Amino acid sequence: MISYERQNEILELLKERRTVTVEFLCRRLFASGATVRRDLAEMAQKGLLERVRGGATLISGASQDAPLLVRTQKDREKKKIAAGLALDFLEDNMTVMLDSSSTVTCLAAQLARFKNLSVVTNGIETAGVLNENTSFKIYLCGGLIQNNSSMVGSLAQETLEHFHTDILFFSCCGISAPDLVTEANEETAAMKKLMLRNAKKKILLCDSTKMNREYFCKSCRAQEIDAIVTDAPPDQALLASLKKQTQVIYPQSGH
Description:
Elements: H1 3-17, E1 19-21, H2 22-29, H3 33-45, E2 49-52, E3 55-58, H4 68-73, H5 76-86, E4 95-98, H6 102-108, E5 118-121, H7 124-133, E6 137-140, E7 144-146, E8 150-152, H8 154-160, E9 165-170, E10 174-176, E11 180-183, H9 186-197, E12 199-205, E13 217-221, E14 227-229, H10 236-243, E15 247-249
Parallel strand pairs: 4-5, 4-9, 5-6, 9-12, 12-14, 14-15
Antiparallel strand pairs: 1-3, 2-3, 7-8, 10-11, 11-13
Helix pairs in contact: 5-6, 6-7
């Protein structure tokens, strides 16, 4: 098992158990103590986990957004479904703005079928995926690196002010009734607000695990966006509330 595979497995085990010991990981991964400790040290440096005596614990908290590697691995199939549905909003030759979310990174991985897109993003991994798989013009915002995955702060906002795109694809930490879209921290929320202001059409990609969840910072309300794309319908109360404000798209929804 290579390092990347071990570290993904460690994250999966942490999601199940919250805390793991080096001894436990050695048994599950068939790896030496030195190898496991090296992996934990690298992951702690990346902000993926917190080292504790004899092992590690998963970083958590409603005021903190999870690192991209955690978010990308979690509910991967749900994110792919939402991203696939969102492709219907795209055409060749469009200008596109993408946030740094794991769901939008899944969308970026499916864009090679289009021609001559120009893309603006604050997502480091998102830009990397596009650079590897397409010949698009890609503009990556400069600024402060957050969670090893996104650019935020005044410099990143200044970059965004130079662009106005045909469409924005973005995600969120939570959607709650009646129509509130929220983020875990104010830096991310500030970037989303600016993106919303600088795009003609706004599409929210949100896997179903984020429904009926509310976080500290408001990014927008449903009435400010053109569509919410998700992998499965939310409960009836939230769905009815959202449909009063915008289009809600999910598999076999009939929309």
